[in-house]
Amino acid sequence: MAQAIQISDLTVPVSQTPLDMDFFNTRFTEIGNAINVASARMDAYDSTVNTLVSAGLTQLNTVMGPYLANIQAAAQLGFLTIAATGVSVALTQGNSATFVATSGGPLFTPTVFLLASDNTDATNWGLLQVTEWTVASNTLVANVVYSTKIQASNNWSISANAAVIPVIQALVTLAQNASASAVDAYASVESAISALEGLAAAISAGPVASVCGYTGTVTLITSDIGGLTDALATKASLTALSNGLATTQPSNTLLSSLAGLTLTANQLIYATSSTTLAAASLTTFGASLLALSNATAVLSAIGASPINLLFNAQTGTTYTMLTTDNALAVRCTNGSAITVTLPNNLPVGWNCLVEQGGAGQVAFSAASGATINNHNGQYKIVGQYATVGLYVRSNVDGVSAIYNLSGSTAF
Q1: Inter-helix orientation angle 165-204/284-291, to 10°
Q2: Is 60 exceeded by the pLDDT of residue 9?
Q3: Same domain (yes/no): 271, 392
Q4: Which residue has the higher pLDDT, 1 or 13?
Q5: How far apart are CA 118 and CA 126, in angstroms?
Q6: How distant, in Å, are the alpha carbons of 82, 125, 158, 303 from that of 113?
Q7: Do residues 328 and 276 share a domain?
Q8: For 271-292, what is each residue's pLDDT tens digit?
């Protein structure tokens, strides 16, 4: 390190010092050397700063790069959806199914119930109840609550959205049918118990005073009982009776459990295990629902709107969304470009899944008074088999709907 310049080295030591060339050369040389040392230090400082900046940017790219890649992949697929491709899985009701997310996994947060849709067959779908979601391996394990068919596929979409409502409606219908069957079975058993009680009452009445006019010790022959011979002739033979008994219901623990119940008004029988039954109170509202004859009446009673289709297939090049498309999946399959118009009068909360099922690219257009929002300013579907989600986030006056568009969008 160069020695620092002392101020005393630059001053005139005595008043008689000659101001000649040597005087100035000595002092200017010291000043120049000091400037050169300062310049060298600045160059070293700049080099160190550049090295630190480069190292910082490299580290930032290393840490943030994978997160940005995950966010980009999730934006293409939709944050509430994962794709599971390459591994064959069949939905068997009551069994467990395992899916490995091949896209959208890192940012996917499943709800309790999910909809599994076969991308190769729109009629192959089911309702899943999540039992395990492992983020590290993108592995989803779920119990199949309901499935339309047992058909293996290696191209699944797993989503958490309002499309599970039709499945729940189907399960309610199944429960209603099961309840009706239980009521019929109970009525039949109750009739049989009543007959047995009558027989027991007759036996408990005690011995008779006479038989066919005879008292005391009585020995009867067939002719003593009027019409007995003819009556016996009309009865089934022993062989026929044995054959008939062979097809009857044997003793059953469920029937015994049913007979042991003490029932009161407004109660419903249900199974607590494979061999035991119990009774639960049935509210007035629940009883009124069970009395309804069809799904339309049930929806009206609970203040819900009917869902006509799970999928609304559109084959044309134009389509305008309707109120009845709420919670549906609209599939557009035309080979030419398709324009889907979003009206200004749909209510807040209206939502829909839209799929480009054909080669024609789907573009979204806002009707007069309506607005479409997208994070990237993209208002088209990226390509065939891709899906997007729509929902109305605001409509303050009923004719100025604001839509959010997310998922696999493109310019």
Answers
A1: 100
A2: yes
A3: no
A4: 13
A5: 9
A6: 14, 13, 10, 23
A7: no
A8: 889 888 898 888 888 888 888 8
pLDDT, one tens digit per residue, over 41-87 is 888 877 887 787 777 777 766 766 565 555 555 444 445 788 999 99
Pairing mode of beta strands 328-332, 311-314: parallel
- Tell me the C-alpha distance between 91 and 147, whole Å: 6
Range of the domain at 97: 81-160
Q: Are residues 300 and 327 in the same domain?
A: no
Residue 172 and residue 70 in one domain:
no
Handedness of CA 85, 89, 95, 100 (dihedral sign): negative
For residues 315 and 300, state if they share a domain.
no
- The structure's pTM equals 0.31
Would strands 402-407 and 371-373 be described as parallel, antiparallel, or unpaired? Answer: parallel
Q: Residues 6 or more apart from 343 whose CB is under 8 A from it?
A: 320, 321, 367, 370, 401
Strands 113-118 and 153-159: antiparallel
User: Tokens for 17?
Assistant: 């010092």
**What per-residue confidence (pLDDT) applies to 113?**
84
Average pLDDT over residues 350-369: 96
Residue 320 domain-assigned (yes or no): yes
174 inside domain: yes
Looking up residue 362, the CATH number of its domain turns out to be 2.60.120.640
Assess if residue 112 is contained within a domain.
yes
Partners of 153 in beta bridges: 89
SS3 303: coil
- To the nearest 10°, report the CA torsion of 219, 223, 224, 228: 110
342 touches 390 (CB < 8 A):
yes
Provide the domain count of the chain. Answer: 4
Q: Assess whether 268 and 302 both reside in one domain.
A: yes
| 16, part of any domain | no
Residues in Cβ contact with 114 at an 8 Å cutoff, skipping those fewer than 6 apart: 127, 128, 130, 140, 142, 158, 159, 160, 164
